[in-house]
Amino acid sequence: MILLFPANVLIISDGTHSYVSLLGEKDIKIAYIHSVQRSEIIEELKVNKTGLYVTGMWWKDFGAGLPEDIQYSEDGYYVKKVNIFLGKSLSFWFIPLNHAKISVNEEVILFPTKETLVNFNVKKCPLILVIMRRC
Hints:
Strands 6-7-5-4-3-9-10 form a 7-stranded antiparallel beta sheet, with no helix packed on it. The chain has a 4-stranded antiparallel beta sheet with strand order 2-1-11-8. 4% of the residues lie in helices and 59% in strands. The two termini are 18 Å apart. A hairpin with a 4-residue loop joins strand 1 (6-13) and strand 2. The chain is mainly beta. The longest helix is centred in the C-terminal third of the chain and has 5 residues, at 127-131.
C-alpha cells in the first residue's frame, strides 16, 4: 500500500536520459557556453515540492539575453542573486555548441552532446513508479 503513496519528485529529461529523484530541497546548476557571446554562463536553481526557483546567475560579459544589472563580481564573473518562482516545469534548448552541463547537488546528471530540449518537472508520482524510474 505504501508504494502507491504519492511522492514529490524532480524529473530532468532530454527525451533519451532521465533523472528522477525524491524531493526535499535540491540545488541545480546549469552551466553552458552562450550561443552568441560564446562566454560561460552558470544558472542556479533551487527546487522543492512547490516548484523551481531561479536563485542566481553568473556570467562573464554583456550581450544578447544577458543581464546588465549586476550585484557584484567574483572570480571573473558578474553575479546576480534572486529568488524568482518559475513554476513546476521549465525547458532549456541546448545545441552542441553550448557544451551544457546540468548538476543536481553538485553531481553532474546530464551533459547533452546533441541538439536537445531538456525538461525540468516537479510533480507527484506514486512511490512505486519513482523506484522504477518511470514517472
